[in-house]
Amino acid sequence: MGQKIQSLHSHTLLSDGKVTHLESLDLAAKYGIEVIGFTEHDFLPDEKTIKALQGLNHPTKWFLGLELTVEELEGNKDANIHLLGLFVDPFNKPLLDHCQKALANRFDKTRQKVKKLADLGFDITEQDVLNQVTGYSIGSPHLVAALTAKSKNRQLITEWVEKMRKAGESDSNWAARHKIMMQQGEKQYLYALFFKGDRSFHRIEAD
């Protein structure tokens, strides 16, 4: 008996994914994935969406989960922990209430990040980021898409990457982080430079 391949964590256009539920299922079938979990960022699909999924009669099995942002853990307001829940109840009121608060917090944090990036000289507005949002949740991937859409920003990113490289000449920690960042590729540059809280390079560089 062959081993079943399962994907327990995936996003769709409802949060920061690139495809619909049906496209996800079709891709899963194409690559031999027999079960897929839809785990959006702080969002659960409504009854209409669930019924539409149930009516697909797709050969790839699916279930609903949730990638829940857990913040202010043990009094740490800077915490950014993501808790993955599988086979959750999409109609659980306390869970839905938490999602609503988490989504509101996501938009607040995005506004803060936009302001900080603009202060650093990037050509970015809140509307630029909102234009990248396809569903109900907002996050760093939308910021990345908005930033990299403009040539001025791409040039600034290159300059920040060079700053980290130079920092690595006298700091082995930054040298190691720069090496990892370069290995991961351009799509990860902004995360390493700006989106890792106290570990983000621009915060260290400014201190």
Cα end-to-end separation: 58 Å
Order of helices and strands: EHEHEEHHHHHHH
Q: Name the average pLDDT.
A: 89
Q: How can the largest sheet be summarized? A: 4 strands, mixed
- Please tell me what the overall shape is: globular
Total number of beta strands = 4
Cα gyration radius (Å): 19 Å
Helical amount among residues, as a percent range? 40-55%
User: Uncertain segments of ≥5 residues (pLDDT<50)?
Assistant: none
Q: What topology, given as strand order, has the largest sheet?
A: 1-2-3-4
The helix-and-strand class reads alpha/beta
Strand content: 5-15%
Number of helices: 9
Brief account:
With about 210 residues, this protein is an alpha/beta fold.
Topology:
Layout: E1 5-10, H1 21-30, E2 33-38, H2 47-54, E3 61-70, E4 81-86, H3 93-119, H4 126-130, H5 140-148, H6 151-167, H7 172-184, H8 189-194, H9 201-206
Parallel strand pairs: 1-2, 2-3
Antiparallel strand pairs: 3-4
Describe the model.
The protein is 49% helix and 14% strand. The radius of gyration is 19 Å and the shape is globular. It has a four-stranded mixed sheet, covered by helices on one side. With 207 residues, it is of the alpha/beta class. The chain starts with a strand and ends with a helix. 24% of the residues are buried.
Give me some keywords for this one.
alpha/beta; single chain; globular; 207 residues; 4-stranded mixed beta sheet
